[in-house]
Design a protein that fits this description.
Strand order of the largest sheet: 1-2-8-5-3
Helix content: 40-55%
Number of strands: 12
Shape: globular
């Protein structure tokens, strides 16, 4: 499930999985009759290809370098490489994004590493790709505007409790783990109606083990991180199974609402054959949603805090907007949908942050048939990769691309297919608006409470697999005096 799976599963997963398995299989698969007109580029070392450089540029904090160096050397529209144990065409620029997004399930389809099915096995024995299609049919009812409106007050309540328990009374905090706590708490509430901090924490620990297992070579031997990840996944499924069984009882006894969360919706929804999902199938889907539904938003929140610390003028404009909303509220009154719509400048700031530090670096497709793009032949079976960086930091798409400028998102905003932190086309992240809500609610609650300073002014940024400050962004908190 790209974008709720892909939002949580990453380029690094893909690299380690396929680099390992490529040692045991032939990876240079092209159609012989297409060799003369392939995209320009190089495939690097046998088996490994250019994967090491693809990964190392991210770990050094400059994932765009891999893309830009090859765009300059070979072609600004498409170039050939070998990464993740597969021959791939990297499609660049707004035109490339438009081509891929517009040809979903026509010329290209989503591509998933086999390791995904080991950590997230489907009880129905279908592929992650098939399960993603099913999930995308389930999600729209919960992420359309009328459904999202009822989440705002809930998110505000959780944010207030989060700051009371994790920030108040502290002079210094590390932002990234706290941001993950907040977004995971929100995900547990939206998907499962769990809001007790102790129960959320009970889930959070095995999820951390599971995440650590995903980001390793998938060797399932006792004691390996991958093996521990699989065990954590099984443990979480067992917990989810108990929750599902109890929810079925509560629904039958009218103690739970059919529309209270995604779990109830899944239990009561039938497929095209009139069949209900079984319990383990639901557990698998909820597990994927919990992983993907909070990781990328927590990375975005962390970088928002980083940029607001570095740019006081931007911080004060966000503060002014948020304090105007705060002063309009009665004591104890929660944020509502109308308040969110007033946070236009704050969201422009968040969008500019995600342009410069996109949580999702890009995504893969697979060619369903041979086709021509930009005058070059893409053979059937080749992988195609689109990268946010081919447009986000491209001066042709964003003048002065290194400059932080929220005004880029005023009016009609960036040109189509240039700003793609949530993907695009039929596979655009269905949780985009959900992420917008939890990010804005967080921004509201942090700026009305604090100013802050970075404790490590030159903290390195790494992309492994999402961008994040190497030390988690430690900051010194200062009480807000403008309230």
């Amino acid at each position: 499930m790209e974008l709720f799976f892909l939002c949580g599963l990453t380029l690094f997963i893909l690299f380690v999985s396929f680099s390992f398995f490529s040692l045991f299989s032939s990876t240079r698969k092209t159609n012989g009759n297409s060799q003369t007109n392939l995209p320009p580029g190089r495939t690097g070392l046998p088996f490994v290809g250019e994967s090491l450089e693809f990964l190392s540029t991210g770990r050094k904090g400059h994932p765009e370098k891999f893309i830009y160096d090859r765009m300059a050397k070979y072609s600004s529209r498409v170039f050939r490489t070998s990464i993740l144990g597969e021959t791939a065409a990297v499609v660049c620029g707004a035109a490339g994004n438009k081509f891929l997004f517009s040809n979903e399930n026509k010329l290209v389809t989503a591509w998933w590493p086999s390791s995904v099915n080991k950590i997230f096995p489907s009880s129905t024995q279908t592929s992650s790709k098939d399960e993603a299609k099913k999930m995308r049919k389930l999600l729209p009812n919960f992420f359309k505007p009328e459904a999202l409106q009822r989440y705002v007050g809930m998110m505000d309540t959780i944010a207030q409790r989060h700051f009371e328990s994790g920030w108040e009374g502290r002079q210094e905090v590390v932002v990234f783990p706290l941001a993950k706590n907040y977004t995971f708490w929100v995900a547990c509430k939206v998907f499962l109606s769990i809001e007790d901090p102790k129960q959320v924490a009970k889930f959070a620990d095995p999820f951390a083990v599971l995440a650590a297992g995903i980001l390793t070579i998938p060797i399932d031997l006792p004691g390996t991180p991958f093996n521990r990840g699989i065990k954590a996944s099984n443990l979480i499924r067992k917990e989810l199974s108990a929750i599902i069984k109890q929810r079925k009882i509560d629904l039958a006894e009218k103690k739970a609402s059919p529309t209270q969360d995604i779990l109830s919706h899944m239990l009561l929804t039938t497929d095209e054959n009139g069949q209900y999902m079984n319990e383990m199938d639901i557990a698998d889907k909820i597990l994927g949603l919990l992983i993907g539904g909070h990781d990328t938003a927590s990375a975005a929140i962390t970088f928002i805090v980083k940029y607001l610390a570095e740019l006081p003028d931007i911080y004060h404009k966000v503060l002014a907007e948020q304090m105007e909303i705060a002063k309009s509220k009665a004591p104890g009154e929660l944020l509502n949908w109308e308040d969110i719509q007033k946070m236009k400048y704050s969201w422009n700031v968040a969008c500019e942050v995600m342009r410069l530090a996109p949580p999702l670096q890009g995504a893969f497709r697979e060619a369903l048939n041979e086709f021509i793009f930009a005058g070059f032949t893409i053979p059937k079976g080749w992988k195609l990769y689109w990268s946010t960086h081919s447009t986000h930091r491209n001066p042709e798409c964003f003048p002065e691309p290194e400059k932080f400028d929220p005004s880029r998102f005023e009016g009609n905003g960036p040109a189509p297919y240039t700003y793609v932190p949530f993907g695009g086309g039929p596979r655009m992240c269905p949780g985009k608006e959900y992420a917008r809500l939890e990010i804005l609610v967080f921004m509201h609650n942090i700026v009305k409470r604090y100013k802050w300073e970075k404790l490590l002014p030159d903290e390195k940024i790494v992309v492994d697999p999402m961008p994040m400050p190497a030390k988690g962004l430690p900051v010194r908190l200062l009480p807000q005096t403008s309230a």
